[in-house]
């Protein structure tokens, strides 16, 4: 059996295990499967790649640290500390995207479209933060959440610009990863601050599995020459 086929089989087993853990409220199993998603995703590319770039190790390491920190949920501010790790991991993604972006003069129509997309996303994320602020009594914790969602907004903006600059396979992996992270985190907050909905939790798990795969594919895929569509 090829390593790639074996990795897909592991991912299928992990998603089923994660769903079982959600139904049975076995949190440590659920959290562990999130970590193992990344290990299985790395196995997907082991046939072709033996060494990986430092940013990939940093991103995966910080993301895994965030999940390990959540294992101590309920002890101090472990959940908020996990957001700090995730923020740092997202900054690494933003820096990687910035490497492949070249800024040029944009047409008025393209600039309007860009501002519209950014405005809509900013409004939606702002509305989400506004909805959860009533459930957060600690000002410091609320500040962490606000900074984290500003970080997510920047990630989405860079992903959008990068994709329009390139339209390459690597940029598609990146924008899929960025959108996956944003949606998964919103679904996570829905489970934390609002009544539990198992369908929401399952959707989050599937998206996080996809994020693990897209993250690895993004880091190992080479970028082609940019098309420079005068996005901005």
UniProtKB/TrEMBL annotation:
UniProt superkingdom: Bacteria
Keyword Disulfide bond: no
Spans through the membrane: 31-49, 56-73, 79-98, 110-130, 142-164, 171-190, 202-220
Keywords assigned by UniProt, alphabetized: Membrane, Transmembrane, Transmembrane helix
The protein's name in its UniProt record: YhhN-like protein
Organism: Antarcticibacterium arcticum
């Amino acid at each position: 059996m090829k390593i790639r086929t074996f990795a897909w089989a592991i991912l299928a087993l992990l998603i089923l295990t994660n769903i079982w853990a959600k139904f049975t409220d076995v949190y440590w199993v659920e959290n562990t499967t999130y970590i193992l998603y990344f290990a299985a995703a790395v196995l997907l590319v082991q046939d072709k790649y033996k060494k990986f770039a430092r940013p990939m190790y940093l991103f995966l390491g910080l993301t895994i640290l965030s999940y390990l920190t959540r294992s101590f949920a309920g002890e101090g501010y472990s959940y908020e500390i996990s957001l700090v790790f995730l923020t740092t991991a997202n900054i690494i993604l933003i820096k990687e995207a910035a490497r492949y972006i070249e800024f040029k003069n944009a047409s008025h129509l393209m600039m309007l479209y860009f501002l519209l997309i950014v405005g809509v996303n900013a409004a939606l994320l702002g509305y989400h933060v506004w909805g959860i602020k009533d459930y957060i009594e600690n000002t410091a914790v609320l500040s962490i959440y606000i900074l984290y969602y500003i970080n997510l907004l920047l990630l989405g903006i860079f992903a959008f610009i990068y994709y329009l600059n390139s339209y390459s396979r690597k940029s598609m992996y990146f924008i899929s990863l960025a959108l996956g992270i944003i949606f998964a985190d919103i679904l996570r907050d829905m489970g934390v601050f609002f009544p539990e909905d198992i369908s929401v939790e399952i959707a989050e798990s599937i998206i996080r599995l996809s994020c693990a795969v897209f993250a690895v594919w993004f880091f190992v895929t080479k970028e082609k020459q940019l098309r420079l569509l005068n996005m901005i």
